[in-house]
Structure formats: structure tokens, C-alpha cells
What we know:
CATH superfamily: Class I glutamine amidotransferase (GATase) domain
Helix content: 25-40%
CATH topology: Rossmann fold
Number of strands: 13
Strand content: 25-35%
Number of domains: 1
Amino acid sequence: MHPIHVLLLTGVNNHDWARSAPYLKDLLDRSGRFIVDLVTDPQGILEDADALQAYDLLFVDYCGGAWGKVACANFAAVIREGMGLVLLHGSTVGFRDWPGAEFERIATLCWRDGTGHGAYHEFTVSITDYDHPITRGIGDFTTWDELYHRMVHTPGTDYWVLATAYSAPETRGTGHHEPMLIVSQYGKGRVFYQILGHVWPGDPAAWQQGTGMASLENTGFQQTLLRGCEWAATGEVTLP
């Protein structure tokens, strides 16, 4: 079983990518299933279509503007042709200027006008699909995180929810169960969106304000992320 080669795209984010991206690279590398290249200038490598052929999976920990027409076209093309994609937490907040709004069709569910979240708090993530390879054999888990609500579905696209969390009114939530893990497909490419994973810039000691690493250090987050990465790249899950 050959290792999965991952291109981790970061460098701009309203979250603390300088902490989250190296942490995620180390998490994937230590699993023994992945080899990760972390780049902080995504446009440069995405403009090189030949260089992208070295990878099995694109991982987006980035929140900003589109990367330019060539880079955006290459990004969409490799997914359409079968490369896996993983999106993390706030990575769908950006890309509003993507040519033809294609990113929104790739992601299927995005942070757009009307989306929000309540307080950073502890809540339970409830598995809703026990048969999908990512969540098969995994139970509900509790985490500290931002609980996104009212994510916007891109018209004409389909996605499948693997887990939800209850957005409680007392935490400034909606009173509804909101998606936390989703999967979709774009062309031949499998897409996994891990909506959890908040790391806010600031004093790490003030972790209950969302400035620590608690969300990424959570066992349930790590397990579902690793399994989601493997599934997006291969269509199967061998990780525990």
C-alpha cells in the first residue's frame, strides 16, 4: 500500500494557519499513511499542472481570495479528473471571486451570507451515517469548537451528511442540528469537508476562547480527519 501524497495549501486565513497547518501536516505524516508537502504560496504550485500530478490529495487550510485563473482552473481540473479534496473549517469562507463560482460547486456547502456560529463551546458531534467508510465503527464524540450554522448549499449540487451537532440557542445557535462532516463528489473527485477545526489567533492559554489547539487535539476530530483524507484520496479507509 503506497503512501498517499498530500499537497497542503495554506498561507492566508482568518484562522491561525501558522499553527494549524504545521500541526495537521505532522498529524498526517505521523499516521504513516500520508506524505505531506505544505505550501504557503498555493498559486505558484497550482499554476504548474505537471507538478500537481505528483499528488493524490489536495488539502485546503486557506481562507482568502482566488488564486488566479490558471491556478483555479488547474485546481478544479485535477479534482474533476479524480484527485481527492479535503476542506477544513473556514476554508469555504473565502473564494468568493473564484471564476464562474466553480469553487462553490466543488465544495457544495459554503460559509456565505447568513452563515454564522455561536460561542466557542463544548458540544457533541453525532454520527448520522454509520455505514460510510469514514464513519463506520466510530461513535459520537464531544469536542470544543465553533459550531457553524446556516451553511449555504450551492444550487444544483449534492452532498451527504455524515455527522451533525445540535446548535443550542443558549450558545447563540439556531436550535437545529447542523452538519459537521459532509462528503460530495465533483466529477470523478471525492470531496470531504471537515467543518470542525477552529484555531483562532491569540494567546494559546486562553483556549476556552478558541485561541488554543483544543479543537485540533480532539481525538474524534483527528480520527475523522485522517479517515476522511484517506477516503478522499482512495475511496477506501484502512485507518483505525
